[in-house]
Amino acid sequence: MEDLLNILRPLHPHVDFENCDTLITGRILDSFDIVSIISEVEAEFGVVIGAENITPDNFNSAKALYALICRLEDED
After folding, report:
1. Domain that holds residue 52
2. Which portions of the chain are predicted below pLDDT 50?
């Protein structure tokens, strides 16, 4: 999880990514942030985030995104 937080924190240093669960619904992250996150997550974790996984539920919190990463790692 810490590796993911290290990806997220520089995007919006004022956001408490450990506890925020409205990253999408609260309009904290925009489409450019999502593209950047996907690129960095894929490089860091060695997973591929397909279009079917780019949903508000998967990106609304760091915990949800980390759960997605874990699911994708388990699929390999």
Report:
1. 2-75
2. none
